[in-house]
Amino acid sequence: MTSFFQSLGMPFEGAWLLSTICGILLIALPLMLAVAMIIYVDRKIWAAMALRRGPNVVGPFGLLQSFADGLKVFLQETIIPSAANKGIFLIAPVVTFTVALMAWAVIPFNSNAILANINIGLLYVLAISSLGVYGTIMAGWASNSKYPFFSAMRASAQMISYEVSIGFILICVVLWAGTFNMNGIVLAQKGHVFGIINGFVANPLLFPMWVMFLVSSLAETQRAPFDLTEAESELVAGYQTEYSSMAFAAYWLGEYANVLLMCALNATLFWGGWLPPLDIPVLYLIPGFVWFLLKIFFFFFVFSWVKATVPRYRYDQLMRLGWKVFLPVSLAFVVIVSGYLMATGHFA
Amino acid sequence: MIHIIAFYLFAVMTVASGAITILSRNPVHSVLWLILAFFNAAGLMVLTGAEFIAALLVIVYVGAVAVLFLFVVMMLDIDFAELRAGFVRYFPFGALVAIVLLAEIVLGIGAYRAGNLELGTPDGTAATAAGLSNIEAIGGLLYSRYLFLFEAAGVILLVAMIGAIVLTHRQRNDTRGQKISKQNQRRPQDATVNVKPEIGKGVSL
């Protein structure tokens, strides 16, 4: 895109800046629209599994429900508790929302549709996802209220615990792909099993890793059954208790943008990203981003499905799963995968 | 042009947030400013071409260490008056630390300017081997030339971790924990009995 702006007679720096801003808008605006629609989809799936109808009043089939909710929230009064630490209280939702958007910079939507095709793509994703906890901690502390504070404590412990095993899982993927570049990881999955199945997930050594990654991504985004940070029976609404109006909406949007990001990571790292599921020439006629979006929506359905069916974990069970099950198993798999790759001469 | 703007942005932000870290009265604010300083330092690393170090800085310091700092600081019940009371008493110690740090920086820059260090070149361009990405270059060095140092560091960390666990772990006999494996092994036929007692006889368990 930079070269296009340069051909209009711009200097390189101006063209680079303009094309980057265009790229950011091309990702962020559809993402916001997708978040609005995905909230509707989430509620519909959840309702269908509970034999209810879900939103069906605003617009055809209730499609405009999220926009109506957004408008309602927008018109509400912003309330800042008098005992709150004002600056941090207001920055916290901004942090959550921004961090949720930042990681999308390295997600490949197609063979060349990627905003920042950097060598350390996966490390960048890890770095950004480790920032996500700050929005929650800052909100919990700045609210100067007990329930948000408990929630922030829970959230930070939970996210640190599961990030450890996510790190080991990603190391297995990187070992097999031989690169940290997200597009490189997608391309390494082309014809990975029997030369025909695109995706690490069909690999018997990496399939357990994917299962653990899916569960960890549920914990990392604080979705059910790991939504202990907003367990309404214990903590009112968790860290968002004191928030109202657009600050609350920023949390809402950020949360769902994070969920979509985790779906996209599942698709990119284990299910072949923008590649079609099978390595057959006919399937490449369908553009890559269609496959990618289909995979994201499939994973989002899985997330909603889990939310509708699985009861919430107790906090000690959550910690046990993270530290006593996932951590040793993923550590063992790092040894097994690297040993297998060395034995078969993968790195030669 | 963009490089220069970015450098001064990151540099000014790093220095400024570092200064506010030690000047702000609320420890939680201090930690948050420290995090901003780390983040901008990572930006400076990216500008010098050390993107791997930048990512590690954010993952390790911002993502893990600073969260623990914040965790501890948030739980403290802070008495602001008492915090400022010890200033004169601790001033000599603080000054000593500052002098040591300054001496180390001067020494480091001096050794770097003198040359013969294979870190990079004194004009600021990092000397990475041609055609190698950052990660490959670091991996090649760590696992060949500095292998023993690297492994020694790993062993020291392992010992520290085991030491921390040994020191803090205590066996408590008065609590009853949940044994998940035992629960999962239970089958309905072991746990329930189906009986049809005669009227007035009752059941022995």
Description:
The complex is a heterodimer of chains A (348) and B (205). With 348 residues, chain A is mainly alpha-helical. Chain A has one domain. Chain A has helices at 2-7, 12-49, 65-75, 86-102, 121-142, 146-177, 182-188, 207-220, 232-235, 245-270, 288-309, 315-343. In chain A, helix 2 crosses helix 10, helix 3 packs antiparallel against helix 10 and helix 6 crosses helix 7. Chain A starts with a helix and ends in a 5-residue tail after the last helix. The relative contact order of chain A is 0.13. The mean pLDDT of chain A is 84. Chain B has 205 residues and is mainly α. Chain B is built from nine helices and no strands. Chain B has helices at residues 2-23, 27-47, 51-75, 80-85, 87-114, 134-145, 147-168, 180-185, 188-191. Chain B is elongated, with a radius of gyration of 29 Å. Mean pLDDT of chain B is 81; it is low at 120-125. The A-B interface holds A 13, 16-17, 85, 88, 118-120, 123-124, 126-128, 130-131, 133-134, 137-138, 141, 149, 152-153, 156, 160, 163, 180, 316-317, 320 and B 1-2, 26, 28-29, 32, 35, 51-52, 55-56, 58-59, 62-64, 67, 70-71, 74, 133-135, 178, 180. Chain A: GO terms for molecular function: NADH dehydrogenase activity; oxidoreductase activity, acting on NAD(P)H, quinone or similar compound as acceptor; quinone binding.
